[in-house]
Specification:
Blueprint (H helix, E strand, L loop, with lengths): L3 E4 L7 H4 L9 E3 L2 E6 L2 E7 L3 E7 L14 H8 L6 H11 L1 H7 L12 H10 L3 E2 H15 L2 E5 L2 E4 L11 H8 L5 H17 L12 H8 L7 H11 L10 H10 L15 H15 L3 H11 L2 H4 L6 H13 L4 E7 L3 H8 L5 E4 L7 E8 L15 E2 L1
Antiparallel strand pairs: 1-5, 2-3, 3-4, 4-5, 6-12, 7-8, 9-11, 10-11
Helix pairs in contact: 3-4, 5-10, 7-8, 9-10, 12-13
Amino acid sequence: MTWGRIKIPIKELSLDSVLRSGQSFRWKKYDDEWVSVLHSQVLILKQDPHYVYYRSLGPSADSPLPAEDRDVEADLRDYFNLNVDINRLYSHWASVDRHFEKRSQLCQGVRILRQDPWENLCCFICSSNNNIKRISQMVENLCSRYGSYVASYNGIMYYSFPPAPELRAPAVDQELRKLGFGYRAAYIQKTADKIAEWQAAGNSLHDLRTRSLAETREFLMEMNGVGPKVADCVCLMSMDKHAVVPIDTHMWNVSKKLYKDAIKVSFASKSMTKLVYDSISSALTALWGDYAGWAQQIIFTSDLSDFQKGVFLDENAKAQLAARRTAVKAEEVEIEVKTETAAEVKTELVEIGLATVATDTGRSKRTRIKVETAIETTAKATLPPKRRRRT
């Protein structure tokens, strides 16, 4: 296999940032290579500061899938939405939102993927009250059990994503429960049955890309296990609805802390009603514009623990972050926090990597938080970073 390449700087497309950001759950990294299945081919990607390199394995001789002569570069340009000028968008968002400007320094090259709608829908049905690691394992189990063998690479067998007719039989529910899907098993099976019947009448999920956001969302929410958040994620990540802003519990908390002045809604309620959801989403769309969903994904991604540590910054950005840290004198500051736990305020304190938090309790009404600035290697107890949940 020979390597092809696409010239694109890492600040415009970072594989490490995009493929870890909770949009797609099938990509795995081995050493410097990212591997997954796209269009019934095993794709292998790697990157340097100036190019993305790619190669592919079509269906092997013992695969039931037909061989296709595909333009892999065109597939990748479509999948990563490379027609979108991310530099222009970053500049616009930074000019209208000071919070975005801070966070974008730690999160470069994030783009919204243009995924297969059926795969995207199933994966986000699995995302309910779940985390990225477990969702990835569930999707892997689904493909290996019901998908078709594609090819092997470095001793690992890769499978296609199963189409809706393969998942519509009632027995699929119990089989998926055995594979660890829990209550989501019934959602997958019933949704597959509806989609398979709809497709048999000559319809295609890809056609929804040309429909309005309201029409597409309404259709998706008729599926089992699909509420406003899941529908909006699918609209954004596979239906070309770039302005939609999905609101999960994480974005609820971010909105409450950073954007409450721009959102005309009370955050007193502990539950997210339809009114609250729509108000937050609409306000952030108004703030960020036609590609507001992309800005939301960058805010979400920047708050994952690896990005808070600066793991995926390029060398120049790492140097800037180090300079900011060393410019802050090592000192301890006492902060009083009303009713919030240490975990709830941690995001703000370490927003740009300038602080770590230590606390002895998160239960009292008024919690004393100790902040240590500029010392990343502190030996004092800190709250461990948690993988962000898609809830």
